């Protein structure tokens, strides 16, 4: 690789990173990437809005950040669920409860990914969460 190409590589990687960050942050759905230790690696603003928190969640356990229940009110053990997955998973019958007692219906999608590039990329998962309370209320009518 010549000197000119070496100088362009970091800039190109940085530009791609900026584009990806911009794309993720512009999404209305909450996106949370977790590492193989089940800790939050990356997230977008929509995720913070949906889980109703205004502090950083990087390096926190996904089970601490996202406390979901099934439609019968039973708590979901996300770590157990994620560890049992072999392929992509989705569910639209979950509930997220807030500390004030209010609740929203959520769609949850979890997909295995590599966080990083090549063989050095660690395994992890991307968790997508969407508030579907309005959709659910229309279905019930």
The shape is globular
β-sheet strand percentage:
25-35%
Give helix % range: 25-40%
- Give average pLDDT, whole number: 85
Order of helices and strands: HEEHHEHEEEH
Widest beta sheet: strand line-up: 2-1-6-5-4-3
C-alpha termini separation:
64 Å
Task: Using the CA coordinates, give the radius of gyration.
Answer: 18 Å
Structure notes:
The longest helix is centred in the first third of the chain and has 24 residues, at 3-26. It contains five helices and six strands, in the order αββααβαβββα. It is globular and about 50 Å long. It has 141 residues and is of the alpha+beta class. A hairpin with a 6-residue loop joins strand 5 and strand 6. The N and C termini lie far apart (64 Å). It has helices at residues 3-26, 45-51, 62-65, 78-84, 133-140, and strands at residues 30-35, 40-43, 68-70, 89-97, 103-115, 122-131. Strands 2-1-6-5-4-3 form a six-stranded antiparallel sheet.
List the helices and strands and how they pair.
Elements: H1 3-26, E1 30-35, E2 40-43, H2 45-51, H3 62-65, E3 68-70, H4 78-84, E4 89-97, E5 103-115, E6 122-131, H5 133-140
Antiparallel strand pairs: 1-2, 1-6, 3-4, 4-5, 5-6
At a glance:
The N terminus is likely disordered. This protein has a six-stranded antiparallel sheet with strand order 2-1-6-5-4-3.
